[in-house]
Design brief:
By secondary structure, the protein is of the alpha/beta class. It has 2 domains: 226 residues, Aldolase class I (TIM Barrel, Alpha-Beta Barrel), CATH 3.20.20.70; 70 residues, no CATH class. Helices cover 41% and strands 15% of the residues. It has 14 helices and 11 strands. An 8-stranded parallel β-sheet has the order 1-9-8-6-5-4-3-2. Helix 11 packs antiparallel against helix 12. The radius of gyration is 19 Å and the shape is globular.
C-alpha cells in the first residue's frame, strides 16, 4: 500500500501498533515492524535504563522502522529524550502533554514526531506545534483516554477537517472492516492497541491476555476522569472505584485507592483481582491469542477483500 502514512514512516502497511504501557516491549514492536506495520515501544512504563535496553533489542530484532511512545508527563522525560536521540530512534509518538515542549528538539535530531489527540482542537494545536502527523484517539480506546468522550466515528472526520497533516485513527479498531471504515472517514492509517495485547509477543502477563479474550460487551468502562481518564476491565479494584464514586469520594480518596503500581500489578504481574486492567471496548471481539504478524496479515487481507470484491455492493442505493 502507498499512502501518506506509509511514506512518512517508510512502512508497507498503514498499521501502527500502539505503545501501550506494560504490553509493548521490543518483541511486540519488532514483530509488527517485521510484518510491515510500525511497531512502537511503550516508554511510559520503562525506567530510562530499561528503555535503552528495549531500543537496542528492537534494533537487533528488526531492520525495519519502529518508534517509541513517549507520554510527556513522564517524570524523568529528559533521560528518555536523550536516549531516543542518542540511539537514533526514527519515530516518536508523544502523548499526554503539550506537543510544543519537545517537538522542535526531536525534529532538529531528524526524528519524525506524531502526537496523540482526543479532539480536533488539540489536533490543530499539534499541527501548529510542527508535528508530522496526529493520532486521533476515540472514546472506545483502552488505557488513558480523553475527557471529551468523543467516539472514533465522530472524531476522525472532525480531525480530518481541522488539519492538513496525516491523520491516524485509533480507538475501537481491530479488524480490516474497522480499518476500512476509518479510512473512509478520512484517516490515512490506523493505530491498534488492544488487539496486539493478545499476542505471544506482548509483554503483558498471560493471565491478562486470557482475561482480554474472555471479555464481553460492557466489561470495560472509562473512569477516574477526575485524575486521569482510563478505560478499565471490571474487577475487584474497579468495584472499589465504583463504590468510592457512589459515596461521592474526594479526589484525594480516589487517588489513595488508585495508589501506585496498579497497572503493573494487573497487566504485567497478572493480578486480575487488585490490578488495573487497561483495555479497549474492542476487547469483546478478541477471541484468541495469535502472533502479531498473523494479525497484521488478517487485517490487511480483510481490508483488501472488502475493496476488491463485491462486499460493498450491498451499500449501494
Amino acid at each position: 500500500m502507498k499512502n501518506s502514512v506509509c511514506s512518512l514512516f517508510g512502512i508497507e502497511y498503514p498499521i501502527i501498533q500502539a505503545g501501550m504501557i506494560w504490553c509493548s516491549g521490543w518483541e511486540l514492536a519488532s514483530a509488527v515492524s517485521n510484518a510491515g506495520g510500525l511497531g512502537i515501544l511503550g516508554a511510559g512504563s520503562m525506567y530510562p535504563e530499561v528503555l535503552r535496553e528495549q531500543i537496542l533489542k528492537c534494533q537487533a530484532a528488526t531492520s525495519k522502522p519502529f518508534g517509541v511512545n513517549l507520554p510527556l508527563l513522564y517524570p524523568d522525560i529528559e533521560k528518555h529524550v536523550q536516549t531516543i536521540i542518542e540511539l537514533n530512534v526514527p519515530i516518536v509518538f508523544t502523548s499526554a502533554g503539550n506537543p510544543k515542549t519537545w517537538t522542535e528538539t526531536f525534529k532538529k535530531a531528524g526524528i519524525t514526531v506524531v502526537h496523540v489527540v482526543s479532539s480536533s482542537k488539540f489536533a490543530k494545536k499539534s499541527e501548529d506545534a510542527g508535528v508530522d502527523a496526529v493520532v486521533a484517539e476515540g472514546f472506545e480506546a483502552g488505557g488513558h483516554n480523553g475527557r471529551e468522550e468523543t467516539t472514533t466515528l465522530c472524531l476522525i472526520p472532525a480531525v480530518r477537517d481541522a488539519v492538513s497533516i496525516p491523520v491516524i485513527a485509533a480507538g475501537g479498531i481491530g479488524s480490516g472492516k474497522a480499518m476500512l471504515a476509518a479510512m473512509v472517514l478520512g484517516a490515512d492509517g490506523v493505530q491498534i492497541g488492544s488487539r496486539f495485547v493478545a499476542t505471544p509477543e506482548s509483554s503483558a502477563h498471560q493471565a491478562f491476555k486470557e482475561r482480554v479474550i474472555d471479555a464481553n460487551e460492557g466489561d470495560t468502562l472509562l473512569t477516574l476522569k477526575e485524575l486521569t481518564p482510563v478505560r478499565l476491565l471490571r474487577n475487584e479494584f474497579f468495584n472499589q472505584v465504583m463504590e468510592a464514586y457512589a459515596r461521592d469520594a474526594s479526589n484525594e480518596e480516589l487517588n489513595e485507592i488508585l495508589g501506585r503500581g496498579r497497572a503493573k500489578k494487573g497487566m504485567y504481574e497478572g493480578d486480575m483481582v487488585n490490578g488495573e486492567l487497561e483495555i479497549g471496548q474492542v476487547s469483546s471481539t478478541i477471541k484468541e491469542i495469535k502472533p502479531a504478524a498473523d494479525i497484521v496479515k488478517e487485517i490487511i487481507l480483510e481490508y483488501r477483500q472488502l475493496l476488491q470484491t463485491e462486499s460493498l455492493n450491498r451499500l449501494l442505493i
